[in-house]
Amino acid sequence: MTAVISGTRSDDATRLKVQIGHYAAPEPLKEGLKPTIYNGGSLSRAHMGINHPVLASFLCPISALADFNRDPALARKWMEIGHIRMTSIDFPVFLWAGNPPGSRYDEDAMHEGLFQGYLIERIMRHIFTGPSTALGDDSRATCSCNASLHDMTTVEAEHIAYACVQARFAISNKNKWSEADGEFNNRAFYYNIIDFIRECEDRDWAEGLLKWWNRALFKNENGAKVERL
Length: 229
Hints:
Blueprint lengths: L1 H16 L2 H4 L29 H7 L5 H6 L1 H10 L36 H11 L17 H4 L7 H15 L8 E2 L2 E2 H13 L4 H16 L11
Antiparallel strand pairs: 1-2
């Protein structure tokens, strides 16, 4: 899986650029993200990341969500100067389900909705079952999608972690991929997510998460059906 990720990271990041304004929007079939962001190309992404009011809320560490909701402008300033630290061990809000992401977060049940944010779901579909499936629940993967090309029949922790890394980079203000984004380290983020899922003491939650993702991508909690000749 690591080799696959190394070979596809750049291609996926490039293709996601032109779609992120739709994928980050709550109801993309009605309207894109507001304020509008540019779609890829050579244009600067300086207006994205913490400089965008919505994307800043996505990138906010979950531990600071209450601060952000109380005073978004101040929280964005704190994120900029490092008073609110963004590190790979403090997961960002967009990892959680809800509209907006994290709106259903419960500190006493933090696993609920984790790794089920709508941005991740759309990016998972974009990468593994094709862009045409990203926004539609009834869409089907094409035979040439990444899942088929790499004999992927079930979702594993590595797939989720990869999509989370791609999602964070896609909404950031970075024009080029790099392992570090300030204090935030993408490689550490990737492995922290894998470890979180694989080593979670609540195995029912971890197994349920993978089944949820199998349904989201393959319409079957057990994964894609393998056609035999």
